[in-house]
Amino acid sequence: MERTWEELAPGVVRCRLAGWDETVGAVAGDESVLMIDAGPDTATSAALLRELRALFTRPVRHLALTHLHFDHVLGAPAVLGATRYAATGARALLTPEGRSGLVSDATAHGAEGDGARRDAAALTAPDIEVDTSLTVELGGRSVVLASAGPGHTGADLVVHVPDAAVVFCGDLVEESGEPQAGPDAHPSRWAAALDGVLTLGGPSARYVPGHGAVVDAAFVRSQRDSLARRFGNDTPTGPGARQCPDTDGGA
Ligand SMILES: [Zn+2]
């Protein structure tokens, strides 16, 4: 498959996968590579790993899962030997019902059923759940994983690369369409989650959406405001906004 890896900074890349246009990213240090999301199936992620090895000649030792939607995580079982990170709450979503939900979402979007069932069964719980934030050392480069949600799901993780001023946002930000809010979204918390993302990255960072082209802070702020209007809340912006009470009452 022809695939283009977009270089955002030296050692910081992302690609947009064919099909559902989801982002897979990677950050390389002197010693190891952190992969961000794993694509929709293990065949795809095995190919992605081969490409990352050719790009960086260092092992993928870390895998950050931005959230547990099939198009971002069903490739994870192929990322062998990597420590897997997700936001707190992700383990609790990997119930038998959660796994069958991943399969039904995948097949509803056109994935092949046997492969999706096999990948979902092989998907292990994350090794580390990030409650607030966690710094991962890659050798000469530190990357910050931060629990940013709930918002798009109950367990949303973002990845900040401070020296490159890049934030991988998962589906908390989407550029190629309206942010997708399914039954597992926490709509009234989403705007506050984006306040936290903007605080993390700052005004001059580049923000990598889960789907679509790389955007700037103004785009994220505008999407934050439109989500607040769309879901009828007016969560205050600025530091401390994430402390607001959970008022959505939904899944
Ligand atoms: Zn998603």
Automatic annotation (TrEMBL):
What is this protein's name?
MBL fold metallo-hydrolase
InterPro entries, sorted: Metallo-B-lactamas (IPR001279), NDM-1-like (IPR050855), RibonucZ/Hydroxyglut_hydro (IPR036866)
Domain Metallo-beta-lactamase, residue spans:
21-211
Q: Where is this region: Disordered?
A: 229-251
Xref: Pfam families: Lactamase_B (PF00753)
Gene3D superfamilies recorded: Ribonuclease Z/Hydroxyacylglutathione hydrolase-like
Spell out the PANTHER family in the cross-references.
Answer: ACYL-COENZYME A THIOESTERASE MBLAC2, METALLO-BETA-LACTAMASE DOMAIN-CONTAINING
